[in-house]
Design goal:
The complex is a heterodimer of chains A (about 110) and B (about 240). With about 110 residues, chain A is an all-alpha fold. Helices cover about 80% and strands about 0% of the residues of chain A. In chain A, helix 4 packs antiparallel against helix 5. Chain A is extended and about 50 Å long. Chain B has about 240 residues and is mostly helical. Chain B is globular and about 70 Å long. Chain B is built from 11 helices and no strands. Helix content of chain B is about 80%, strand content about 0%. The chains are: A mainly alpha (about 110), B mainly alpha (about 240). Chains A and B meet through helix 1, helix 2, helix 3, helix 4 and helix 5 of A and helix 1, helix 2, helix 3, helix 4 and helix 5 of B.
Chain lengths: ~110, ~240
């Protein structure tokens, strides 16, 4: 691909990445939001993160079958406990990578 | 005259301290994200190199499209020969979840100038969003520190992806558990959000709904779909519980 093709692709991707991030913020920050919306939005972070995470643990990506014995899930348990105990983002990432690497070597 | 000069001097020092403070606290909060971004960015760069994408294109992509998952999908789609329109449309769908995050952040950025918001919005990712929300909720945060978090994370992401594309040929596949960096980050960010029983309940509903949705419906609608379902269910449970008290 040429430079201008890459530029066209990434500019297009950039626009559809930026607008969903910018428009709600710019619109809502200058509106008086009702309390129910504030309460509802307060539950969005936990819901989004859980929805991003759970399918990657319980199901293999290409064929989408439920699988409770994947190394992703087995490694997630000690990693979760470590995160609850230490609340360290960097440490959790490193421990998860280490355990996943070891799991790949031994299973 | 002298008084005004002193005022100006005083103001200068105050601003300088404020900037320093924002930089220090922002970077302290951002570094764990950066630590997580580095292996993921490397992995993306390596994959891009193996797909034959030059390093300058990787840099351009990380600059214009600061969105890890969309970038991974873009590399995979380019490898499989997808059209540009298909890649852009997929990016749009995958990044729709950020409308939810952007709306949730608006609660803490009421009345902030639009110019600042336009700059801030560029750096809203799953990770910076999760960290900034926890800080905003605890009341110890302001928009400048949040801005530092967003843009430091972007800088590290840019460097990591370019580095990955430069050293890609020397890195064996799946080395050092790189594939798990993102999962590890999500696990800890989720833990940060569990600040009470209603959050735990919402997380469990989201996990259940997203897994079912993912298994039954092709595509990526499960992220936004399950998030909206779980937050709505959580909201009604919370309201019911409150009214009973």
């Amino acid at each position: 691909m040429t430079f201008s093709e890459y530029l066209l692709l990434f500019a297009g991707m950039g626009a559809v990445t930026y607008l969903p991030r910018a428009l709600p913020l710019i619109y809502l920050a200058h509106k008086k939001m009702p309390q129910w919306l504030i309460d509802w939005l307060g539950l969005i972070p936990v819901a989004v993160l859980s929805a991003l995470l759970a399918p990657s643990l319980f199901s293999a990506t290409p064929d989408r079958h439920l699988d409770l014995g994947r190394p992703e899930l087995l490694v997630a348990l000690p990693t979760l406990l470590f995160a609850l105990k230490t609340r360290s983002l960097g440490g959790t990432v490193l421990l998860g990578m280490l355990l996943y690497w070891l799991a790949g070597l031994y299973f | 005259m002298q008084g005004r000069l002193e005022d100006a001097l005083f103001y200068c020092i105050m601003t300088k301290n404020k900037v320093k403070n924002a930089l220090r606290q922002g970077s302290r909060t951002a570094w764990p994200i950066c630590l997580g971004y580095f292996p993921i960015g490397l992995a993306l760069g390596v994959l891009a190199q193996q797909a034959g994408i030059p390093w300058w294109a990787v840099a351009l992509m990380s600059l214009l499209v600061f969105a890890g998952s969309a970038q991974f999908i873009c590399v995979a789609m380019l490898t499989s020969g997808a059209s540009l329109a298909a890649i852009i449309f997929t990016t749009f769908v995958v990044n729709l979840r950020h409308t939810l995050m952007s709306s949730a952040l608006a609660v803490y950025l009421i009345g902030v100038p639009r110019r600042f918001l336009a700059l801030f919005a560029y750096g809203i990712t799953d990770e910076s969003f999760a960290v900034n929300m926890v800080r905003f909720r605890s009341g110890e945060w302001d928009r400048w520190k949040a801005l530092v978090v967003n843009h430091l994370a972007n800088l590290v992401w840019l460097m990591a992806t370019v580095t990955g594309s430069l050293v890609g040929q020397f890195v064996p596949r799946g080395a050092f558990g790189i594939d798990y960096a993102l999962t590890g980050m999500f696990i800890c960010l989720l833990v940060f959000q569990l600040q009470g029983r209603i959050y735990l309940i919402t997380a469990m509903i989201a996990a259940l709904v997203s897994v079912c949705w993912y298994l039954l419906i092709p595509g990526d609608s499960y992220i936004v779909g399950a998030s909206v379902c779980a937050a709505t269910a959580g909201y009604f449970i919370q309201r019911r519980y409150r009214s009973r008290k």
